[in-house]
Amino acid sequence: MGLMNWLGIGRTVANVAEVFVENRTARAAHEHVEHVASLNALSAEFARPRGGWFDQLIDGLNRLPRPLLAGGTMGLFIYAMKDPVSFGARMQGLALMPEPMWWLLGAIVSFYFGARELHHFRGRKAAEPEQVAEVMRRVREVEALSEAGAPEESSGNAAVAAWRVEQG
């Protein structure tokens, strides 16, 4: 085994083998780094300080339009089944509304939801420098692991760990 390592044949064979069969340990390490980074991003997204009573009131009011629109639409269906004549009269009144007013209503609703989405998009903080440094450190660790070969000790195989201790 020492001659193969001295000649570099062992690593060459491993490199050739990785062309045909992926290095599962390196892949698992990469997936772990990605998983940890996504969890950190998720926790950073939801870690915002709670505001005062006014901020909580406004947040509550900002959450009302979508449920009210959905509930109101369901209410229209119920109203149409309960009193079709009155419902029809109101719908005829809506049909008489000029088209520019429909465009204005569409613009208001679109801008409201678009501005809300833009606010949430802009509100996401860029990754803090410490987080970026931590992710880069982990990426370098994974690259070092993939260059050095698979660390069998981490798999819990006592025989392999004992053999590595013997090899020095």
How large is the count of helical segments? 9
Poorly predicted regions: none
The best one-word shape is elongated
Give the helices and strands as they follow along the chain: HHHHHHHHH
Protein name: Methionine synthase I
Organism: Algicella marina
Question: Can you give keywords for this protein?
Answer:
Methionine synthase I, GTA_holin_3TM, mainly alpha
Structure description:
By secondary structure, the protein is mainly α. The protein has one domain. The chain contains nine helices and no strands. Helix 3 packs antiparallel against helix 8 and helix 5 packs across helix 6. The longest helix has 25 residues. The model has no long low-confidence stretch (mean pLDDT 79). This is Methionine synthase I. It comes from Algicella marina. Pfam families: GTA_holin_3TM. InterPro entries: GTA_holin_3TM.
Element layout with pairings:
Layout: H1 2-7, H2 9-20, H3 24-46, H4 53-62, H5 65-82, H6 84-95, H7 99-123, H8 129-148, H9 158-167
Helix pairs in contact: 3-8, 5-6
